[in-house]
C-alpha cells in the first residue's frame, strides 16, 4: 500500500544481495548468512505489501459491486 514500505522492502532485499555476494567473494560465512537473511526479509516485506494491495483492491471491488 505505502510506497515507502515497498521501497524499504526492495532496499532491504537489494542490500541483502550485496551482503551475500560480498560474503561469498570474501569467504565470510557470517556476512553471507546475514545477506541471505536480509534478502529473505525484504522479499517477505514485499509479499506482505502486495497482499495489502490485493486486499485493498478486493475491498474496493466489493464496495463498487454494491453501489
From TrEMBL:
It comes from the Bacteria. SUPFAM superfamilies: Hypothetical protein YjbJ. InterPro entries: CsbD (IPR008462), YjbJ_sf (IPR036629). Residues 5-55 form the CsbD-like domain. Residues 1-67 are annotated as: Disordered. Residues 1-11, 27-41 have a biased composition (Basic and acidic residues). Belongs to the UPF0337 (CsbD) family. This is CsbD-like domain-containing protein. It comes from Serinibacter arcticus.
Amino acid at each position: 500500500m505505502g510506497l515507502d514500505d515497498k521501497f524499504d522492502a526492495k532496499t532491504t532485499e537489494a542490500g541483502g544481495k550485496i551482503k551475500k555476494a560480498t560474503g561469498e567473494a570474501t569467504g565470510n560465512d557470517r556476512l553471507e548468512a546475514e545477506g541471505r537473511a536480509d534478502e529473505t526479509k525484504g522479499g517477505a516485506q514485499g509479499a506482505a505489501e502486495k497482499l495489502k494491495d490485493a486486499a485493498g483492491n478486493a475491498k474496493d471491488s466489493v464496495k463498487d459491486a454494491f453501489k
